[in-house]
Amino acid sequence: MSDISLNTLPEAKVSDYVALLKPRVMSLVVFSAFAGMWVAPGFGDTNPLLIATAVLCIALNAGAAGAINMWYDRDIDAIMKRTRMRPIPLGRIPGEEALSFGVILSVLSVMMMGISLNWTAAALLAGANAFYVFIYTIWLKRRTPQNIVIGGAAGAFPPMIGWAAITGDISVYSLIMFAMIFLWTPPHFWALSLFANDDYKRAGIPMLPCVAGERTTKIQMLAYTLVLLPVCMLPFLMGDAGITYGVAAFALNAFFIFTAVRVLQDNTLKSAKLMFGYSVFYLFAIFLALMIDKV
Q1: Considering only CA atoms, which of 148, 262, 152 is closest in space to residue 206?
Q2: What is the pLDDT along the chain (295 residues), one digit of tens a residue?
Q3: What is the pTM of this model?
Q4: What helix, strand, coil percent values describe the chain, rounded to 5?
Q5: Between vectors from CA 8 to CA 7 and to CA 13, what angle results, nearest 5°?
Q6: Could you give all domains of the chain from N- to C-terminal order, each with its CATH number?
């Protein structure tokens, strides 16, 4: 879809540029990244200004990737009900301006992270951005039902970035946090795709329910939640987290599995909506449990 003529565009508002940054997605990214910083050794000795700078860089970078994603997906966003009110399909921001906005913020955030904190964190930040834009958005999203499985790695980087911002390195603990989000992503997005199936079909996006059917999707959702449980217990089992986290992680994952079982048994969309809503809460809660346990 070609961009709307600049002469016909209404004046963009600040809220339109904020919407380009996908603030709801950004909140999950920033929180999980901050959790990675919080549990990292040396967090308490780090200058608060440097911590705030790292959080800002991560937020700007996540928003920048979202803006580039909206530029690339502007044709299908105009078709799908849940995305057609975004600034570009509405004609409030031209596509090329959104792209420039995203690229500038991407470069700025990576350079700021490298100069202010360290280049390991900056490299991970750049890698997460590139993975989301090039691997997920441009390559996988429109080509394979495994788009979320592989592309979900982009959203799993934040705790590693947060950890590296404090320590300057990558550890087994930070890799476990990466794996937690990586395994959480498919059931989270497939729950959404179950009740947004018509939207994805209309846009030609090969989400798993569109390609393999609802039954296969639900079975895979359950499988991922089952694998997620032992992975989330690793910080406790390895001694990096205590009993507070262990109990919370087990309870949160047990209910996540329960919601997946309900989805498998339910022929309506009610359980899928419940699971999607819970999955958002779950991600906040599991990382909050790590932070509280550290205290």
Answers
A1: 148
A2: 444 444 455 666 788 888 888 888 889 999 999 999 999 999 999 999 999 999 999 999 999 999 999 999 999 999 988 888 899 998 899 999 999 999 999 999 999 999 999 999 999 999 999 999 999 999 999 999 888 888 889 999 999 999 999 999 999 999 999 999 999 999 999 999 998 888 888 888 888 988 889 999 999 999 999 999 999 999 999 999 999 999 999 999 999 999 999 999 998 889 999 999 999 999 999 999 999 999 8
A3: 0.92
A4: 80, 0, 20
A5: 100
A6: 13-170 (1.10.357.140), 172-295 (1.20.120)
